[in-house]
Amino acid sequence: MHHRTLLSLLALVAPSHGQTGYTTVPLFAYEHETSQITLDDIEANRAVGYADAPPDPAVTVECKAFPGTPEWPSDAEWARLNASLGGVLLKPAPAGAACYSSRPEYDASRCAAVLSSQALTRGFLDDPLAVGTPWTSGDPCPPALKPAGECSQGGLPVYVVNATSVKHVQMAVNFARNKNIRFVVRNTGHDFVGRSTGAGALSLWTHHLKDFDVIPKYVSGPASGPAVHAGAGLQAWEVHEAMAKHNITLVAPTFATVGAFGGYLAGGGHSSLISYHGLASDQVLAINLVTPDGSFTSADPVMNPDLFFALRGGGANPFGVITSVVVKAHPPLNLSSTVLAISNLDTGTDLFWKAMAVYFRFGRSTVDARGTDRTYITPYSNSTVLNFTTTIDFPGLSPQAASSLLAPLEASLRALGINITFQYPTVSRWADNVIGEGAALRDQRFASRLIPRATYDDDAKFAGVMSAIRTVVEEGGYPVHGTHMAPTLRVAGYPGADSAANPAFREAVMHLVVYDSAPSSTSPGVTATADHAARSRLSGYVDYLRNATVGSGSYVNEADVLEPDWQRSFYGANYETLLQHKTFRDPWDLFWAPGAVGSEAWTVRAAGGLPTQNGRLCRTAV
Ligand SMILES: Cc1cc2nc3c(=O)[nH]c(=O)nc-3n(C[C@H](O)[C@H](O)[C@H](O)COP(=O)(O)OP(=O)(O)OC[C@H]3O[C@@H](n4cnc5c(N)ncnc54)[C@H](O)[C@@H]3O)c2cc1C
Ligand SMILES: *[C@@H]1O[C@H](CO)[C@@H](O)[C@H](O)[C@H]1NC(C)=O
Ligand SMILES: *[C@@H]1O[C@H](CO)[C@@H](O)[C@H](O)[C@H]1NC(C)=O
Ligand SMILES: *[C@@H]1O[C@H](CO)[C@@H](O)[C@H](O)[C@H]1NC(C)=O
Ligand SMILES: *[C@@H]1O[C@H](CO)[C@@H](O)[C@H](O)[C@H]1NC(C)=O
Ligand SMILES: *[C@@H]1O[C@H](CO)[C@@H](O)[C@H](O)[C@H]1NC(C)=O
Ligand SMILES: *[C@@H]1O[C@H](CO)[C@@H](O)[C@H](O)[C@H]1NC(C)=O
Ligand SMILES: *[C@@H]1O[C@H](CO)[C@@H](O)[C@H](O)[C@H]1NC(C)=O
Ligand SMILES: *[C@@H]1O[C@H](CO)[C@@H](O)[C@H](O)[C@H]1NC(C)=O
Q1: Rg (CA), the chain
Q2: pLDDT digit string (tens) for 496-513?
Q3: How far, in Å, CA of 251 to CA of 244, rounded?
Q4: 573 Ramachandran zone, left/alpha/beta (phi>0; psi -120 to 50)
Q5: Of all atoms in ligand 7, which is nearest to the CA of residue 419?
Q6: Where is the signal peptide (predicted)?
Q7: 90 lines ligand 3 (CB under 6 A)
Q8: How many domains does the chain have?
Q9: Please, where are the H alpha helices in 549-574?
Q10: pTM (global) more than 0.90
């Protein structure tokens, strides 16, 4: 039997390229998703019309249109777009503009509010432009009580569509494609490498797509059970609240403000439930989206299987704008959690690293019991004293069971003769597990590595990984954050297999992140040369980890923007297939982001050759 009824509507304008010839409205569609662009809309403004044909291969455009170039639409054209959109087009100034007396937005009290809201609140999330990692935009307008320099738009988009309906999304997609404008999708702006910002761009903002519905019984292939239909703009704290209200478990980030169904889910998505229910992308049963040709469609195991494959782990960016998802809803779940810490241990001896080897090797037992942890090894700035803390979570285990599972670990650590702090496990509901209030803007650079189980199972290889970590921390001076996890296909369940999730995830026993907080060229007095040097220094140290885990990969959502051989590292053996889907779905190269499938064809011409989004997007020189 077919898994669900599809309401097939004849398309008003046949979407042209690679489509089935009609637009379908999925059964699980919100009201705003059933109202799409009409013939009247297109008659009133041809610029919002669907693509009539794939691009003419004889005509190659070197760059995307840019403000100030003749190609850039006139104010009148933007005003017509705004009219088509019913007035939701924004032309926002950076929030920091309130601090610059040269700007019309100047307002000292507003400036003070911006400064405090960026410290640690949910404040910046309602800003249409702000990015969590300011260097990615070139930080063109830093708020300060007495700012030096001028405030400009830099690598922040010029226009933003504040979408509350599929029609808005379609109009934004069609207009950007028809006018050769750089197109950006932004949800929360939490991305670490600038995938949700871009100079001279039209940005589609999904933040206000907040719908949420429980589907008591959803049937998909061999599976049937409760599910949730959720808008792409929901954030972790909203999803956890909904879990508590509806007495269900959903896979969602723990950190309060990360988007649960945007880039997080599309890139894989890990949480404390990863060894219990798999990746966030493993939860997906159907995805509603607007594809690059402007049509609204649904992807599931039966419809548009190429998109269903790609959007579960292959990154949202290249394939369309997700408007809502159907994800599995599991029964309510408790976690037993404990904190273990080793403080201020001198690196002069090997004791700290002996303890780390004991702790990390135990990670196999943690994930085999379907648990996870969050470890932090923090060197002091002088790198002579080290701190270690970890939170270990066991979903579905009682505190007693968790305690006996951890007893051998505690005994081994104590046998080393070191002082450890080890809490007796406490129980809490997953629904209540929300960390933080909001993300502070922070100029960190990231790099990461998925550590395969095979390296843990081999004494020599395991010693190699531990020695690489030690070099990164002691010699490099970088803090290291590890998460033991095992999102195997077994825990993922249906329809986890045949997804684009990085195959390295399935083999992994740990995801290891290395941070660099050295100031970037957007900070006063730091040159592009120094910025490049800091990046290659970080990458040079991460090479120790890469070399100790040859053939593994890196998690695309928490990665080095300059990851070597990134196609292999982020997407593994799926890359060629993903690139074919990308070329087929988006022959216009409308969707682009650094490190995304197909992104090698275009380059941002940024000042100083830095990997920021502060420059015009042009074809990569061959
Ligand atoms: C404080 C903090 C904690 C984090 N914790 C975790 C964690 O626990 N687990 C984990 O796996 N990751 C975590 N991350 C990393 C997180 O997965 C990435 O930052 C991710 O990019 C966030 O996705 P977003 O949609 O919220 O952000 P955005 O920056 O808005 O978007 C990220 C990317 O997804 C694209 N995108 C977003 N929405 C859509 C959509 N609807 N359709 C198409 N494309 C879309 C954007 O274009 C962009 O490329 C954390 C990040 C931060 C800053
Ligand atoms: C779009 O129209 C609305 C309502 O008319 C207006 O408030 C807004 O400023 C316009 N946006 C732009 C970019 O002009
Ligand atoms: C975006 O739209 C939402 C929903 O209509 C509205 O509440 C919000 O104020 C808008 N944001 C901006 C910056 O205009
Ligand atoms: C929550 O769900 C569980 C199992 O799914 C059930 O046993 C329990 O009674 C429910 N609690 C409430 C308050 O509905
Ligand atoms: C080391 O750990 C102690 C207690 O666990 C904490 O108070 C201190 O801030 C930590 N230091 C660093 C540099 O992380
Ligand atoms: C390193 O820093 C720590 C914390 O600031 C301090 O206690 C210690 O004495 C320092 N060690 C050296 C060798 O400077
Ligand atoms: C452990 O802590 C005690 C008291 O806090 C201290 O005397 C002892 O030297 C510590 N041991 C080690 C190995 O650090
Ligand atoms: C989960 O823990 C809460 C207390 O935090 C308790 O009331 C509830 O019964 C537990 N539920 C399960 C399924 O263990
Ligand atoms: C990593 O391996 C490459 C290739 O074998 C080698 O050139 C490089 O020096 C190694 N780097 C580190 C840090 O071990």
Answers
A1: 24
A2: 889 999 999 999 999 999
A3: 13
A4: alpha
A5: 1
A6: 1-18
A7: yes
A8: 1
A9: 566-571
A10: yes
